[in-house]
Amino acid sequence: MGKPTGFLEYDREDGKSIPSLERIRNFDEFHIPLNEEKQRTQGARCMDCGIPFCQSGRLISGMASGCPLNNLCPEWNDLMMSGNWRLAYERLDKTNCFPEFTARVCPALCEEACTCGLNGEAVASKANERAIIEHAWKAGFIKPNSPKVRTGKKVAVVGSGPSGLAAAMRLNRRGHLVTVFERHDRVGGLLRYGIPNMKLEKWVIDRRIRLMEEEGVKFIPNVNVGTDIKSETLLKDFDRVLLCCGASDPRDIKVKGRQLAGIHFAVDFLSSVTKSLLDSNFADKQYIDPRGKHVVVVGGGDTGNDCVGTSIRLGAKSVTQLEMMPRPPKGRTDTNSWPEWPKIEKTDYGQEEAIAVFGHDPRIYQTTITEYIGNRNGELKQIEIVDIIPEKDEKTGRINMVPVEGTKRRVPADLVLIAAGFLGSQSYVTDAFGVKVNQRMNVLTKDNEYAASTARVFTAGDMHRGQSLVVWAIWEGQEAAEAVDESLMGYTNL
How far apart are CA 71 and CA 106, in angstroms? Predict the structure, then answer.
């Protein structure tokens, strides 16, 4: 709980960020942590609230309130405050396989449900989490934890994103022989190629992968299960197969002119940039290049923001971000009370950088593309957009976004990056294993279970629950590991 009166005695203090115009010169992380003494003081702000909503992870109005991993925030805040770093790490490790990931990329669901934040500023639990895990690595608390006894059971994990890695770690430590297959050239999945380097530097992933390898996990990159290797082979060679391939089928914006050169999915853009950065520091030129171009990003979520920040770093001439939904309010409304997730306007790092570079917020709300317009060479040069408003369908009761007459206009666009979300898992994997999918194209299981319709096949992460957060993917991987373990052993102690 920290210090019972700490929230009254100490103000919240966050580590500084490198100024926008300076940090856009590279792809390095730009948050500067507090020193140890100041961070411990932040731990002292954790109040004796009685009901720690921060760790509840309950769904309210369809959105998580508190940490889905049920992280023991009050406990490790208190331990960090007292300088007991080892025990703080041990409490953190009980619920979260990869605090070094969530402490960098999670939207801090714990803080939005913090009781201290009801009438003041929330406890800086995300920064405290990062301080604990990085202290643990530096102090040598984190060492290979190989199983003393092997079960002889073999598990194939398909996909090395956060859910696949979490499941692999847990199953290996249980004693099973775990092999992780990854279709890309490097392990990490979404963490590697879906999240830009300035949010999650890739040495953080490599550090964890090396530890898992030392513990006995086998990683095989450059193998696309379903094409390079048949499902029958995996089911023959392994006792169980766990599909953690993500919701990787991107939603398209199919309007007139879609065939023009210069229109790409955000995931392809971000992955090409990161790969080129890792391979050659961009010397190979093997990436979708926004330099000197008018860039339009379609989508107002985290991925869209990442496209904005990445485009600016690579020298875009201008950046416009289109969002279909109305502009959120500045503060909570009467229908969005604490501890619900706050549905309010937020300005993320990419938008901050766009404001610093171009002098204005790049976002245009309640707008969609009606046409892509190109030149004689088939290259994109403009887009036609139109304002849209919500309108209720009296027959179905559904709210549809409909065009506003007379609002069509054209915007310069040499490069369009579509970050409109994902439709579900890619069919070539689900077809290969013969697993049933639901209407959202996610692998179908019974409620709160992870076994797929095909015998000995399980699933977890975005492939199971749909596009979501890294923290949810880790939770799913940990839960699926328990299900796989129980199916192999008749019980589980995970």
Answer: 13
